[in-house]
Recover the amino acids of this structure.
């Protein structure tokens, strides 16, 4: 019995080899296109070794100034801690208010609750619009309309999170166990009682978990919002970076990291208390 070579197999079954060759050509073409796009972006952004080395040198100087804290006891601690408190309040109030508004809207957007397609699509497009615009853009809009201060940041978080949380809650409502809902309905319960005892207990873990997560996330976001004038610790940080008080900027960054860590620990405790299991 004679042994077959690759050429013999290719001659007898050419189609699989042609398909493999086409796949290889497509993969090579995709890699080449990605490489060409990356090189084009590097040219467009004027990326050069000289610029990178010069920038790294200046970053080293900044880090050096961050490590040496001069005249520590003369710093404006009242302004710093007031800004930190404002950021925490913005994140907490903005998220809680958004959750309370998003929850009833999520019922109107859920297919398992509202059968007609038109009202569901209207609410869903509203969610898309609110979450499609970044918090930073909302903050700039509210700063322009209401002026500088934490109220603009609070409204930016509130507006953006209605869209995001509403979408998450509506998806949770569409994935509930229908048997529990039908069981409550079979007892002769009213529509509100069906929502209260059929839907809400099933989405409560999602509601609580997502709300806590967004409080954590918005604590960080509130810092960035302050940079564009929405108050809070971000405004304090931005002012010190403008005048190159890098030691005070480093102190504020450490405070932000510590605060985010504490908020994370607190939310993990609440999650374990009400949901159980690992925090995340």
């Amino acid at each position: 019995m004679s042994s077959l070579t690759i050429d013999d197999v290719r001659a007898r079954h050419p189609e699989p080899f042609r398909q493999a060759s086409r796949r290889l050509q497509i993969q090579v073409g995709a890699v080449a296109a990605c490489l060409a796009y990356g090189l084009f972006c590097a040219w467009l952004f004027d990326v050069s070794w000289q610029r990178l080395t010069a920038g790294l040198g200046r970053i080293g100087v900044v880090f050096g100034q961050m490590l040496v804290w001069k005249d520590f006891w003369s710093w404006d601690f009242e302004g710093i801690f007031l800004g930190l408190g404002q950021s925490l309040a913005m994140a907490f109030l903005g998220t809680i208010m958004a959750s309370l508004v998003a929850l009833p809207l999520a019922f109107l957007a859920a297919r398992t609750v509202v059968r007609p397609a038109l009202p569901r699509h209207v609410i869903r497009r509203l969610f898309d619009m609110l979450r499609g615009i970044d918090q930073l853009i909302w903050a700039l809009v509210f700063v322009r309309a209401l002026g500088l201060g934490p109220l603009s940041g609070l409204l930016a978080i509130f507006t953006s999170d209605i869209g995001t949380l509403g979408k998450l809650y509506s998806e949770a409502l569409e994935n509930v166990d229908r048997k529990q809902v039908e069981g409550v309905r079979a007892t002769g319960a009213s529509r509100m009682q069906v929502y209260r005892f059929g839907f809400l207990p099933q989405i409560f873990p999602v509601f609580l978990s997502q709300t806590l997560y967004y409080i954590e996330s918005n604590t960080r976001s509130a810092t960035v919002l302050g940079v564009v004038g929405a108050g809070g610790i971000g405004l304090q940080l931005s002012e010190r970076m403008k005048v190159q008080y890098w030691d005070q900027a480093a102190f504020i960054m450490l405070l932000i990291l510590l605060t985010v860590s504490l908020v994370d620990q607190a939310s993990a405790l609440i999650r374990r208390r009400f949901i159980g299991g690992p925090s995340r």
User: Anything to note?
Assistant: The chain is about 80% helix and 0% strand. The chain has a mean pLDDT of 87.
